[in-house]
Amino acid sequence: MKTCYYELLEIGRDASPDEIRKAYRRQALLLHPDKNMHRVEEATQKFAQVQAAYEILSDPDERAWYDSHREQILREASPTTSGGFDGPSSTSAGTKTQDILHFFDPGLFAIIDDSEIGFFTIARKVFAQLADEETQADDNDVRLPNFGDSRSSWAGETRYFYAAWSGFSTRKPFDWCDQYRLADAPDRRVRRAMEKENKKLRDAAKKEYNDTVKAFVAFIKKRDPRSKQSTANSEQRQQDMATKVKEQAAKARAAHRNRFKAYEDQDWATPEYDEQFWDEEYSTKAKNENVNGEDVEAVTSAGGGANADSDYDENEIIVYECVFCKKTFKSEKQLGVHEQSNKHQKMVRDVVRRMKKENARIGRDSAEEDEFKDARENFSVEDLADEVSHLST
């Protein structure tokens, strides 16, 4: 009769992870060879059992599995030390769930080699028998891969083995689980009821069998040195990749800072250039145009209001100008009609597009572009024209 893992560690079944860890350390000290010189072999064997108990109970998933199958696991063991099955369970039903549960014992796999009682030999025999039973149940089924040995590489057959067996689904019919013989049914109605009940029992047994095999695959994989080495290599590759990503990000940030430091505003983007531009525009118009038939001096005086006397002069002439199309009008009404024209609106869109393109070319900050976009969406054409006109004065 096997000993319960909780009893080996002398703890309750509701023990916390911290209590399990402390109990294991306590038992390890008690079973240390230096304290058991008169019974070294017995202490070593007991310590192996304690270590197996700790490996199972310290893992949340394996502990949950052990708790749910504890009574079955503690029944008298049927597997032999060489990895075979014997006893009444090896009937036409083949390997049953109970048979596999007896192999959830880390002590059976303590010797990691290819000897008859070693990890690779025992595991290989178990999986070979399971695969053979699946082939007998459905000869057309895809053959399940072999477990291999200590020389099998992870990149080759080992990874393929775990990929195939992790999704195990039995082909065995499980008709030995039937409770009723259909031949005993007195009529069709009773026969259907029998079939339904038998199917329910088969499906339940099949699900339990599939879950047990997949749990055993995970149990073996966790202890497989080939898988551990692959996991270590994978973690190292991930660390190397993370380091490279951080280095590239640091280089990109440094390059961005250098570009920002080296950036200089273009002349046309400075406020001084804006003021100079509009002064030259009004000066040119004053020389070449005569608004409302008045003298050029009057136009110049009106256009250069920034330099004129701040007091209102009744002789001043108000200029209505479209800064986008570079046209002047006799009245505000004419300017309003012009701003509603397709030609004017097309000109506004062209100016906006050119400004965005220029911003992108010189590397304008994205926040400025967002502000410009919001302004263009929230302001009408008239508001935008008024704003530009205001900036020009």
TrEMBL record:
Limits of the J domain: 4-70
Q: Which CDD domains match?
A: DnaJ
Query: InterPro entries of this UniProt entry?
Result: Chaperone_stress_response, DnaJ_domain, DnaJ_domain_CS, J_dom_sf, Znf_C2H2_jaz, Znf_C2H2_sf, Znf_C2H2_type, ZUO1-like_ZHD
Single GO molecular function: zinc ion binding
**Ranges of biased composition (kind: Polar residues):** 228-241
- PROSITE patterns (alphabetical): DNAJ_1, DNAJ_2, ZINC_FINGER_C2H2_1, ZINC_FINGER_C2H2_2
Alphabetically sorted, this entry's keywords are: Metal-binding, Zinc, Zinc-finger
- A GO-annotated cellular component: cytoplasm
Location of the region described as Disordered in the Swiss-Prot/TrEMBL record: 224-251
Q: Where is the C2H2-type domain?
A: 320-347
Protein name as catalogued = J domain-containing protein
Organism whose genome encodes this protein: Lipomyces starkeyi NRRL Y-11557
The uppermost taxa in this organism's lineage are:
Eukaryota, Fungi, Dikarya, Ascomycota, Saccharomycotina
